User: Fold these one by one.
Assistant:
Number 1:
Amino acid sequence: MEFEVLGNKDTRSGYGEGLAVLGEQNPNVVALCADLTGSLKMDAFQKAHPDRFFQTGIAEANMIGLAAGMTIGGKIPFTGTFANFSTGRVYDQIRQSVAYSKKNVKICASHAGLTLGEDGATHQVLEDIGMMRMLPNMTVIVPADFNQTKQATIAIAAHEGPVYLRFGRPVMPIFVKPDAEFVIGKADVLAEGVDVTIIACGHMVWKSIEALKELREIGISAELINMHTIKPLDEAAILKSIAKTGCVVTAEEHMMNGGLGEAVSQVLSRNNPVPQEYVAVNDTFGESGTPMELMTKYHIDTPDVVAAVKRAIARKPYII
Amino acid sequence: MENNALAAIASQVRRDIVRMVSAVNSGHPGGSLGCTDFLTYLYFEQMQHNPAFDMDGKNEDLFFLSNGHISPVWYSVLARAGYFPAAELGTFRKLGTRLQGHPSTDKNLPGVRMASGSLGQGLSVGVGAAQIKKLNQDPTLVYTLHGDGELQEGQIWEAAMYAAANKVDNIIATIDANGRQIDGDVDEVLSLGDLAQKWHAFGWDVLHMNGHDFDSIRSTMQQAKSMTGKGKPVVIIMKTEMGQGVDYMMGSHKWHGVAPNAEQLQVALDQLEETLGDY
């Protein structure tokens, strides 16, 4: 299967465009931002709907509380700040006022992971998926490219309940069709194969697409699943694929602890324990550097996906 | 409502509180007893509200309890105001109850719109709800209640700064200034300094009242309401006594989170007239 590159853009711009669309479509959508309106690409919404845009200043705990309160009266608040300040900094506010209280708040988080780049480890959150997927009532979505982030932003407004939407800063290739349907909790099978199942999310979906080409050259037929929804996880898609391939590689721009890989391993261990290899950051903080330098140094790059595939296949039971 | 009618309700609420916490040997009687007169007044005279509960609360006043540990007084007042049967107070803190140790929306208890317990979050919630009332052109008000110890949480001051900067003038926050917290007097644990000056400096209009005098509560609450819609949020520093109404619980922080045993309960009940019938 060939992937047509439709352009190059950052996923955060997909959020900004999706939010602008929602502003026109749904008068109940309101937006809050903690002094990062430009970084989150929320300017268009702010300009078009100043009455429904709330600048909270650098006070994220208050922003989450405000958003929870704004659901009372029927509004759908979208909060925007960096992923680090959207999760760890405000975990207790999300836990009590959003997740436990089942409030219809959409926590939209940019600059997630290592690809935030030069700002360094203070801002490169790699634990956020884990924190958010541990919360009952929380839906966790990590779209793969600009188009999918736009589609996901629009889709979550129609979903009743708390959502964590994670996206990033770097410009990356666009490969999801602009008219593709985004269904929360339904994985996208991007390529069919028989030797291994690669399950990826976020920027690692593109890295896995790049890996497919190299794998094909060495005669490995890989199935690729874009697991854009981490919770609820599409278990049926995973089990269907591994019944065919017999081994798994998970790929994510996140800590190995708590992320997509761990979510997938739970499904495997309970249902069909096949070999799994992880492409993820292994229990370390990041550092300053360009996004692509960091992906290489911390082993979440295309060659790391290829190597993990080889390891996974090598661990498959030998069948005579 | 006449003061003696309010006092009669408050007496029953205090009986409910001590019976609820004693029955499960846990819970927070001190602050509950201290806020009984205020919450009785709020629900039976001040607020425009509908016990046929609707989560969105459009065109009715909203109340958020930020210091969620004083859930016994809130539950009792809600029950006595008709939100749910008083008999349900007997389920407080028991497995499967809607009356969780700290307030929760999880089991859809009428009257509760937000979980609270982890302190410092309720002012943000109230301010957010108040802004949406404005957006919805809903002229009703938002009320919040906070402990004085709770003001040590930083999020309170984020919300205070935000509300004033954005002219959120349809909210009335009340501080239960009993001067006590778990480890001792607030002044000893972490002094709040000049609390009125702090709120002034954050851009709020500040009122003071005696939380155990219905005349003081009425006149102050009416004044607070008259000050809404004028560009500034309003806060009331309410002087109270932790444990008010039960002599051995007053004058100390000791009964913040301790339940009376059977003998102590009887002593308390002997001081509180049964006016509306025990649950």
Note: The longest helix of chain B spans residues 3-24.
Number 2:
Amino acid sequence: MYIKDLYAISPQKTHDLSFENGDWLVFNEFIYKAIEPSYQDIIPASQLRRMGKAVRMGIGVSLPLMGRNPKPDGIIFGTANGGLEDCIKFLNQIVEYNEGTLTPTNFVQSTPNALAGQVALISENMGYNITHVNGSLAFESALLDASLFFDEHGQEEKTILLGAVEEISDYNYNIDHLGKRFKQELVSNEDLLYSNTPGSYCGEGSTQFFLSNNPEKSLAKFSALKQSSCLSKNEIGDFVLSFLAEQNMNPEDVDCLLLGKNGDSLTDSWYDELAKPFGDKPTVYFKKSVGEYRTVSAFASYLAVQLLNGKAHHLIENGAAAEPRTILIYNHFDAVRHSLILIQK
Amino acid sequence: MTTNREELIVEFKEHLIKYLNLLDLTPADIKNDEVLFGGDLGLDSIDSVELIVLLDREYGIKIKNPTEGRQILVDVNTIVDYIVANRTK
């Protein structure tokens, strides 16, 4: 699957490409909120007033991307929670108004597939349209689906808009915070990995890719994907080595690692375990930039494509990767759901 | 409960802006005789459901007959007239 184009709204300034060109925002906050562009020139006001944040961010990424590319044959999104804020508003209304007359907008906006539907409606796209909601592997499921879509169509040239979106909901953040998923104390994202306390910081955003099975003028390609929900820490080495072996590769063939370390003292050791066979490979810890959320691997993929195209090298730690051509992303959520994504030039 | 008609008009417009998320408008921007549907406000069928919910929640008015609804949800004047005559709270 070849990546022809990409765009993201994130807590960093990806919307105006400052981030890719060396800008990096330092956060001293519990929540890393996405920096949203002005939507007035992108989304009609009559539609914008009904959009929740997830849909707004998603459309804000989709429309510029669709505007500079031909109409895709499919729209595939992944989101763990969709428009969670509006969803909870709607659920609260059911209680508040004793299951009486309910206002439709919150409901319309809160379904996870609202974004893919809105993109299709606005762009009059009648093609394949699906949203994967497989929790913290939702983006990986969407990626797998895109791969199957291209396989199904053989040599016939096809294109897909692939993406992910996640928003921070106040209600849900509070629940997760009480559950100690997020840190109780404040540490700058510069020092996130040295905090030595449980939990991380919450992020959000939308990342999307314009994919094709035609390699011409591509920025990079999604080469392979592997996911698991049943791994123990002592199996993680075999997990990555067998993944590379399936691609006829070994750790030396990987130029740069993108690891999802998030400063959680309870689960960060999994990343150290995975990184052992790679020695001192150049590494990027992408959650220092955007925080933790369930479809953050889409942002990691975005970052990988930038690195493969000579951008965002200011984020590389453990030495420099002069011209990386092969990048491996490893991410896990709560040390339960794990994924490996291989992206190559 | 607001009983003065002018105050009621302003209150209703504030509800209208909140329920329909017309955040770039103020009550003064909405004329009392401005057609709500098919006019400059650009309201649509989903907004009509929001208006029905607004009338139920804020004024205890239930509109169940679609024909009746079309005669009430014309402009701010017709809605406020109906509120004055039928409100239960």
Note: The first strand of chain A starts at residue 2 and ends at 9.
